[in-house]
Each structure stands twice: as C-alpha cells, then as structure tokens.
C-alpha cells in the first residue's frame, strides 16, 4: 500500500493559494483516475483506491498546514505503513514556479507543514515532491505570499508542475523505484 499526501489548508478561502499546491497535485491525481478524495477520517480527507494492482491512499490533511503531521501520523499508524510507502507533496519557495524536485529525505527548509510532519513521524527520512512557487519579489511577507493566489501569468507553469508531480506519483505507485522516479523527474 502506498500513501500520497498533499499538504495545504482546508476551505474555499485557501483553495487556489500557493500553499495549497500539494492539495492541487492530489486533486490532479484523483481527477485523472476518476477517484474521489471525500472520505473523512485521520483529521483529513482521503481516498483508498487501486492503481495497477497497488492499493493507494490519497490524503489531504484538514488540520491546516502547520499541523499536517497529526493527520499523517494518524493514517500511518492506522494502516501500519512504512516510511518508504509515503510520498509527501508540498510547496517550496526555493524552487522557481513551475519546477518540481523529488527527494528521498531532507529537512523542513523553513516549511512549517514539513516541520510538523518531521516532528510527528520522528524522522526526516520520507520521500517528497517539492513544487516550486518562487519567492516574493516585492516587500510582501512570506505569509501573505504563500497564502496568496498565483498570478495569471504563471498559471500555465503551475499547471505543468502539478501535472509533472502527478506523473511522478503514477510512476512511483506503478512500481518504479523512487530513485528511478527521482532520476526521471529531477531534470
């Protein structure tokens, strides 16, 4: 069984914000496969589906970003999942908008959702897809930036990065080792 987690904030207010690109990637994966991420448990919305013979859980924590680890730990314990069966998708200001980067482990890089996930899992050793959102180029605060919507001129790049993240997820859940998926998508 594999578990793919997209980080974000619940509610209409945050739906199209930069911080919700993890949710957007989960939504893209669900849409492609005609899945519905509507079951409510584990402090999140989830779907339990099958992809090419593999059981797959899609999870969108509803705890708000800074408490994402609570939801991830709850689903990990319930299904007794190993860390190598997890893939966490989230926004990254250190990558330009439109770029993605896959890693097998790492620190939080100042991302509070990842920090909380590390705290609840007790390790930095979980697979992740970071989707670039760029940095503010004005005097905008980080909070206002990540909770702001993407401007129209980058919508095409955002859409492509979400699609590429979903492609990487599908490669991983179809049985391709994560190292190979990294090599393919980190170009």
Automatic annotation (TrEMBL):
Belongs to the PTH family. TRNA binds at residues 14, 64, 66, 112. The keyword Amino-acid biosynthesis does not apply. Monomer. GO terms for biological process: protein quality control for misfolded or incompletely synthesized proteins; rescue of stalled ribosome. The active site is at residue 19. It is found in: Cytoplasm. It holds the Pfam family Pept_tRNA_hydro. It comes from Oceanobacillus piezotolerans. The record marks 91 as: Stabilizes the basic form of H active site to accept a proton. Its main location: cytoplasm. Keywords: Cytoplasm, Hydrolase, RNA-binding, tRNA-binding. It comes from the Bacteria. CDD domains: PTH. SUPFAM superfamilies: Peptidyl-tRNA hydrolase-like. One of its GO terms (cellular component) is cytoplasm. The record marks 9 as: Discriminates between blocked and unblocked aminoacyl-tRNA. GO terms for molecular function: peptidyl-tRNA hydrolase activity; tRNA binding. This is Peptidyl-tRNA hydrolase. Its EC number is 3.1.1.29. It catalyses: an N-acyl-L-alpha-aminoacyl-tRNA + H2O = an N-acyl-L-amino acid + a tRNA + H(+). Hydrolyzes ribosome-free peptidyl-tRNAs (with 1 or more amino acids incorporated), which drop off the ribosome during protein synthesis, or as a result of ribosome stalling. Gene3D superfamilies: Peptidyl-tRNA hydrolase.
